[in-house]
Amino acid sequence: MEQGIVIKSTGSRYRVLDNKGNIIDCVIKGKFRIKGIRTTNPVAVGDNVIFAQDAGKYSGIITKVLDRRNYILRKSSNLSKETQIIAANIDQVFLMITIKLPVTHVEFIDRFLITAEAYRIPAKLIVNKTDLYGPQDNDKMEYLISMYEKTGYECYRLSVKDDTGTDVLKQNMKDKINLISGNSGVGKTSLLNKLDPSLNLKTGKVSDYHKQGKHITTFPEMHRMPFGGFIIDTPGIKSFGVVDMERNEIYHFFPEIFRISKKCRYYNCLHLDEPGCAVREAVEKEIIDPLRYRSYVNILEDENRKYR
Ligand SMILES: Nc1nc2c(ncn2[C@@H]2O[C@H](COP(=O)(O)OP(=O)(O)OP(=O)(O)O)[C@@H](O)[C@H]2O)c(=O)[nH]1
Ligand SMILES: [Mg+2]
Ligand SMILES: [Zn+2]
To answer: Which pLDDT belongs to residue 28?
Structure first.
């Protein structure tokens, strides 16, 4: 029996990196179930596994998944019940966003951030493609960055194309297990190719007509970085359903809303139209950004719809 870490999962086959640096293609045997959650994939990238290797062959059978330190789940859509583990045992997640080509929406960012908060995984934002931005785009970028920095999220300005901002990111990712997520076409895989040109991974174009990416990366895959640590590249996501959250706890994962909610008159205030709501007062005074509050209300309404 040997131990390794899953670096790629394609549904039925798993690529495992062992302690000696060998890569073994594995299948799973038996049933793997995680308490309390239903997932479409029992073994995920980042999982530490025990496997039995066929003598002399670079193929094996995974027999056990070791306890996960954490994991990040997604729902294939807002209303779907199917959940998928994107990756496990992650030190930090980066959401890559772009102001244009494609446009990343605030609510999408917020759905991602609350998921990371719920799983207690530090989340950071990367704004890529700064080389494309005119004055208006830059204003929009700076607005978002200041909004998220105030809330407590680190933000990075990046142009993979011009190679600006890559060194700072490298320093931050060094020696950690990092995951990069984001819409299709924002440049996740391009960043990996920049950080390690020998990877030569496939990237895609953003279409002129739809201004969206073409879902080039299809499975999450973990890559060892020459400067130390790992980066997990993931397929672009369209929408992000929130997982495992009660309606009355969604605001717990908006740090600035949660902080102020302690001053609401009613302990079970949902910050919609209750009297004495400190959150709504803070939104009016723009202490809480109205964009963030709008995301909160939309996500809450989406969750309500599911119960009807
Ligand atoms: N102008 C500009 N284009 C970029 C930059 N970074 C990436 N691109 C381009 O954006 C397109 C999409 O890049 P990918 O790296 O394939 O995007 P991705 O996020 O991996 O997309 P999926 O795998 O589909 O999720 C490619 O044409 C890249 O060349 C950048 O900083 N500036
Ligand atoms: Mg990609
Ligand atoms: Zn309130």
So the answer is: 87
